[in-house]
Amino acid sequence: MFRKILIANRGEIACRVIRTAHRLGIRCVAVYSDADRHALHVKMADEAVHLGGAAAKDSYLVIDKVIAAAQQTGAEAIHPGYGFLSENSRFVEACDAAGLAFIGPPVGAIEAMGSKSAAKSIMEKAGVPLVPGYHGDDQSPELLKAEAEKIGYPVLLKATAGGGGKGMRIVDKAADFDQALASAKREAINGFGDDTMLVEKYLVKPRHVELQVFCDSQGQGVYLFERDCSVQRRHQKVIEEAPAPGMSEALRAQMGEAALKAAQAIGYVGAGTVEFLLDVDDSFFFMEMNTRLQVEHPVTEMITGEDLVEWQLKVAAGEPLPKQQQELQLQGHAFEARIYAEDPDQDFLPATGNLSYLRTPEENRHVRVDTGVLEGDEVSIYYDPMIAKLIVWDQDRETALSRLAQALGEYRIAGVTTNTRFLKKLAEAAPFQQADLDTGFIERHEQLLFDETGGSYSPNLLALASLYALLKLDQERRQEAQRSQDPYSPWHGFGGWRLNNNPTLKLRFALPGQEEAEEVSVEASNATGNKNLWSVQLAQHKLLVEGRLEGDRLEAVVNGHHRSIHVADLDNQLTLFTPDEQFSCQWLRPDLDNHEFEEASANLTAPMNGSVVTLLVEPGQAVSKGDALMVMEAMKMEHTLSAPEDGQVEEFFFAAGDLVSQGAELLKFAATEEA
Ligand code: ADP
Questions:
Q1: N or C: which end of the chain has fewer CB within 10 A?
Q2: Boundaries of domain holding 93
Q3: Does the Cβ of 221 fall within 6 Å of ligand 1?
Q4: Distance CA 410, CA 165 (A)
């Protein structure tokens, strides 16, 4: 076995690999960029080498620097994690040339699967079933369109070099073909430097079921069952599970054997995943093979009790597979939820910011958190915005799913917008509980999953925010009194406002999406002689509140109903976490400048840092509400900005190729005057 390895990655997967390596007594070298100087993976490693600038192309993707770091530290092998260089055959060649073991498959296997179209040709020959489609070399738009006609709409355009759902477009009808092709090609060039496309029949209600395979260098192979990754947004996985619900033993064996056949057709060694689309009639089609450890590998670990990173290390060191097929047992059910910095209510727009408040559920036999961040870390524009993976296990699907929902409720993040509440809604949605899964799940259940309240909130939440503010004021005044000359003066006590001949205290809160501040009147209640019982008046509601604040934990009683909640207070920006809800508001303290409360103008500002891809209209040209005006790219994804009203663009402030910062005004828009 190796004594020292280098991990050519960052974030949760680097930490994940280090954990297993350390357990096996292997020393670990981390690498890092300027942005990751203080990152968790650097702290966890035994030593770390600086690679370069924050952008991956200046650090994690620079093959020579990674190889040099391994040589300089005496590492014998390199674990690539996923993403970055993990499926880069030139990197594997460089490892081979430098005498470093690559913890992954041989060059030939990566090359065979690197292109979706070449992979399809190989699988066709090996007799693995394929989705009908065109994966040839002739790339003329006319031919691709003719092939689409032949296959029959809807079709799916896919970048052959693609991954992570990028460079992919569904085309419903011939009229949309040209624009979709251009857009997919653009995304593919930016993302992968290659815009070769293939065309496939678009299946209407498929499930995404993938098989984990493992092969050793002695030619042995096993499959470690399947994962169902049907729940996706923008073709990216959101919640994964193992085993796939409703899978018969016969189908499992059939798909497992097809997956092994696929791996063996390319002389595979190490951990790999063969992805299939499973149709309603149980027919299945090869989609692609990922020649690395997958993000969602932990669900397989939970149901098999195996450590896949340990397997990878052993196989890379030339050892045989730790287990034979008949020794592998599937037990219980596991889910993984991907916790992302993103806004589900804004089409999953990636978010950036500081993880100023971060609390994770307690880990135990049932709950596992794979993460690479600590409280106070930045989620930057440079890398994938995944914050963590929450993995749960239990004896059966139903119990595992309630554990998932519960653990999601305990995941508390403020400072950065995340998808935790969305994931919780998903875990609690009846159709998900009934395992009525397919890749269109999220779109089909939009009404159930997205915030349909239009910004309305329960008055109880505002009462809780008021209670927090009162207790916080109380704490501050006590502290002030202790510092003063006369600590026992009644004038310092909370309730000072009462003595001040001012029986009502006004609290003001700014709520997201609301123009006017919400005003709450508070009076001390004399009901029980309890001086910490207040009566709060919000709009038409009057509620009695009392409670206790310890750190971020608020023990609250509202109208006699006791609840224990948590409050993140980031400079008076409050986030309340109740077991079911998350509520944000800004406490407008009278001593503070309240200008921040002005609404930002609607959508003609850049939603995030990124660059301008293309301008779609001419200044002065009449456009209708909803027409696409320009395309921006951020975090390797395209975002189209549309006209908010009928009108015209008077001026664009940026040109294609320009970099823009979040919040920058992109264009001047004039709405058509009503006649
Ligand atoms: P990527 O490499 O970008 O992840 P994949 O080829 O793995 O792309 O496809 C990603 C997802 O897109 C699949 O999980 C599935 O939801 C959907 N998909 C891919 N091919 C098809 C198809 N032919 N019909 C319907 N959905 C598809």
A1: C
A2: 4-103
A3: no
A4: 30
Cα(230) to centroid of ligand 1, in Å? 10
Distance 541 CA to ligand 1 centre (A): 50
Write down the pLDDT at residue 528: 53
**β-sheet with 197-201: strand ranges across:** 133-134, 197-201, 155-159, 168-171
- The answer on 221 and 362 residing in a single domain is yes
Q: What is the mean pLDDT of residues 448-456?
A: 75
Task: Clarify whether residues 472 and 543 are in a common domain.
Answer: yes
Q: With bands split at pLDDT 50, 70 and 90, how would you rate the model's confidence at 601? A: very low
pLDDT at 455: 63
- Rounded to the nearest whole angstrom, what is the distance from the C-alpha of residue 166 to the centroid of ligand 1? 10
Range with lowest mean pLDDT among 291-305, 435-449, 632-646: 632-646
The pLDDT mean for the chain works out to 90
What contacts 399, CB < 8 A, 6 or more positions away?
A: 333
Q: Which residues are catalytic?
A: 292
Picking from 528, 559, 592, the residue at the C-terminal end of a domain is 592
Let me know whether 390 and 424 are in one domain: yes
Instruction: Give pLDDT tens digits for 527-552.
Output: 555 567 888 988 888 999 999 999 99
pTM: 0.84
Three-state DSSP at 416 gives: coil
Q: How many CA atoms lie within 13 A of 490 on its CB side?
A: 5
Percent of the residues in the chain that have a pLDDT greater than 70, as a whole number: 93
d(CA 21, CA 90): 25
Are 658 and 588 contained in the same domain? Answer: no
The residue nearest atom 11 of ligand 1, judged by CA position, is: 235
Quote the tokens at residue 305: 């009790």
Q: Is the pLDDT of residue 497 over 60?
A: no
Q: What is the pLDDT of residues 572-584, one digit of tens each?
A: 999 999 988 899 9
End-to-end CA distance of the chain: 79
C-beta 163 within 6 A of ligand 1? yes
Domain count along the chain: 5
Nearest 5°: the CA angle 276, 278, 284 is 70
Q: Dihedrals φ, ψ of 342, to 5°?
A: -165, 165
